[in-house]
Write a structure and sequence with these properties.
Helices cover 35% and strands 19% of the residues. The protein is an alpha/beta fold. An 8-stranded parallel beta sheet has the order 1-8-7-6-5-4-3-2. Helix 2 packs parallel to helix 3 and helix 6 packs across helix 7. The longest helix has 16 residues. The chain binds D-xylitol-5-phosphate and zinc ion. Zinc ion binds next to strand 2.
Length: 226
């Protein structure tokens, strides 16, 4: 299971250093949590295309950037994030009107397309688009902030997608990646790896005052391998 850091709990005055530490620790994928002050229940604002563009310029072209859009108007604004340099746009199924059009538009723009669903959302809503998706993200917290507790009840949803994606791969279809986001730490990383997650987003479990990113990453990786 690949680990990607969410920078949401970083000290933004030291963001360049934090990102450099993650890259030195072997990270090659960064998760960017965009909130517009409207869509998430706690009305948080995080950051937008300007900061993402600076991150892209700082990193150069080789690091993969995904953009988790927790916004009301993803269908109108996604291009700003693509222009800022993200490789993958992940939109909430609950927040968009026409997923198929958005997926096609993203692919035409030369980037990958993902859909994300909240812990309470029916996975059947995402299923019709699975064969065209590069990634499905299952939220394991209610989106809005870092540092929340993992919701183990998403197990059924993860396993639903794991089985649907395995069927798709076995019939010659796309290897849609399965991602989880929220509350992943060294104590539950092995659990979600065993559920069949391909990529885990880790925010406060990696960027915290307990250890360096490298130390925290080692702890998570060894918990998975034990
Ligand atoms: C929640 C965000 C997550 C989250 C990850 O709205 O999408 O990416 O902040 O942070 P932790 O790992 O601290 O839950
Ligand atoms: Zn996220």
């Amino acid at each position: 299971m690949r680990i990607t850091p969410s920078i949401l709990t970083a000290d933004f005055t030291r963001l360049g250093d934090t990102i450099d530490s993650a890259i030195s620790a072997g990270i090659d994928w960064i998760h960017l949590d965009v909130m517009d002050g409207n869509w998430v229940v706690n009305k948080t604002i995080t950051f937008g295309p300007a900061l993402i563009r600076s991150i892209r310029e700082h990193l150069g072209p080789d690091i993969f950037l995904d953009c988790h859009l927790m916004v009301t108007n993803a269908e109108e604004t996604w291009r700003q994030y693509v222009d800022a340099g993200v490789n993958l746009v992940i939109a909430h199924i609950e927040a968009i009107e026409n997923p198929q059009t958005l997926i096609s538009d993203l692919h035409s723009a030369g980037v990958q397309a993902g859909l994300v669903l909240n812990p309470s959302t029916d996975p059947a809503l995402v299923l019709p688009y699975l064969s065209d998706l590069d990634l499905v993200l299952v939220m394991s917290v209610i989106p809005g902030k870092g540092g929340q507790s993992f919701m183990p009840e998403v197990e059924e949803k993860v396993k639903f997608f794991r089985s649907a994606i395995d069927k798709q791969i076995n019939s010659g279809g796309r290897n849609t990646l399965l991602m989880i986001d929220g509350g992943i730490k060294s104590h539950n990383a092995k659990l979600v790896a065993d559920w069949g997650i391909d990529i885990a987003v880790v925010g406060s479990g990696l960027i915290n005052s307990k250890g360096t990113i490298s130390e925290n990453l080692d702890e998570i990786r060894s918990s998975i391998n034990n």
